[in-house]
């Protein structure tokens, strides 16, 4: 089968012909219809967040149809529409049993620790597979499995309550989902912070109040818009020290800043004025949970989470096209989400 693979960190991805994976008793072989290209893949290609080994097929946002189910698989049949939870876990360690499987002692992330979705087929255990409702197109089902799921997990970690205010720093794929999910979960107002006018316009279509960080300090603007109180929840989805600091500085008393974006760099915090004196919190967010996916799929099925309005651009399964998208993401370009379609 055809696959787009990372041969060596720091170099463009390449096309290779690899064998279709063998199906074990509890495995599901999926014919891929759509695979999202995530900003995390930029970090994997660059070596900022190293993959386990190479060559490796990248891609952790996957949707398609069941090509073949293993002999012991009970929940899926050939031809069914599915999407993939990108963590392959043991299911019985202390973290899995606690419902925090992202810390499973033997966890493997598809597209980072094992071959992922930039290919014609992928194989994963049954426990990582979910039925994809007919109402959700494959390309939307793919990106739900990372950008939307991680945004939902971040809001859950930040303990968002109905009537609270939210600032979303970075209105890319995660940010557009975060804006909609925050409103669905009852946020009174959602502020979308970015420097890209196209992304801010898109966020506005989903009910966000735009804060253009290219024209001034977004913290000052948020303070002005909230009457000097700040926001209850801030999500940092960019992975830059400056936006992480701004997320913390934008908090109200008892506010919570949930940090999602990846970076090697550090950022400064003024402990007394920004944390202690407000009893504010900084919360790390890692991946998402399988238990959150059914709600996410239902929100997308009922269009409470809508990824159809200018959110997705598609490209073919070609190395040049995929590398071009990764190059664009590396520069924080206009695209909100790009999906490989087969």
Describe this structure in words.
- This protein has 342 residues and is α/β, with parallel strands linked by helices.
- The chain has two domains: 2-137 and 308-341, Alpha-Beta Complex (Quinone Oxidoreductase, Chain A, domain 1), CATH 3.90.180.10; 151-284, NAD(P)-binding Rossmann-like Domain (Rossmann fold, 3-Layer(aba) Sandwich).
- 28% of the residues lie in helices and 26% in strands.
- It contains ten helices and 18 strands.
- The strands form four sheets. Strands 3, 5, 6, 9, 10, 17 and 18 form a seven-stranded mixed β-sheet that branches. It has a six-stranded parallel β-sheet with strand order 13-12-11-14-15-16, with helices on both faces.
- The protein is globular.
- It starts with a strand and ends with a strand.
- The mean pLDDT is 94.
């Amino acid at each position: 089968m055809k696959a787009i693979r990372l041969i060596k960190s720091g170099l463009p991805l390449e096309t290779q012909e690899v064998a279709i994976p063998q199906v074990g008793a509890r495995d599901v072989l999926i014919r891929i219809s759509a695979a999202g290209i995530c900003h995390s893949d930029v970090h994997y290609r660059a070596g900022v967040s190293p993959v386990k080994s190479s060559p490796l097929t990248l891609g952790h946002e996957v949707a398609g149809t069941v090509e073949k189910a293993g002999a012991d698989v009970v929940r899926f049949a050939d031809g069914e529409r599915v999407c993939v939870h990108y963590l392959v876990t043991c299911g019985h360690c202390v973290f899995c049993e606690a419902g925090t499987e992202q810390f499973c002692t033997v966890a493997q992330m598809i597209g980072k620790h094992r071959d992922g979705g930039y290919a014609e087929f992928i194989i994963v255990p049954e426990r990582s597979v979910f039925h994809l409702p007919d109402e959700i197109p494959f390309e939307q089902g793919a990106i739900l499995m990372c950008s939307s799921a991680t945004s939902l997990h971040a809001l859950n970690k930040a303990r968002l309550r109905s009537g609270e205010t939210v600032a979303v720093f970075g209105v890319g794929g995660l940010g557009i989902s975060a804006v909609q999910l925050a409103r669905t979960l009852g946020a009174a107002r959602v502020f979308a912070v970015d420097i890209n006018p196209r992304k801010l316009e898109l966020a506005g279509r989903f009910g966000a109040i735009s804060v253009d960080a290219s024209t001034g300090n977004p913290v000052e603007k948020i303070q002005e818009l909230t009457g000097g109180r700040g926001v209850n929840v801030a999500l940092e989805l960019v992975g830059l020290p400056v936006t992480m600091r701004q997320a913390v500085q934008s908090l109200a008393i008892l506010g919570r800043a949930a940090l999602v974006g990846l970076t090697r760099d550090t950022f400064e915090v003024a402990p007394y004025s920004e944390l202690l004196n407000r009893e504010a919190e900084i919360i790390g967010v890692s991946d998402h949970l399988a238990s959150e996916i059914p709600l996410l799929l239902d929100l997308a099925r009922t269009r409470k989470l809508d990824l159809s309005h200018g959110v997705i651009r598609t490209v073919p399964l070609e190395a040049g096209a995929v590398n071009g998208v990764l190059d664009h993401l590396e520069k924080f370009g206009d695209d909100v989400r790009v999906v490989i379609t087969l």
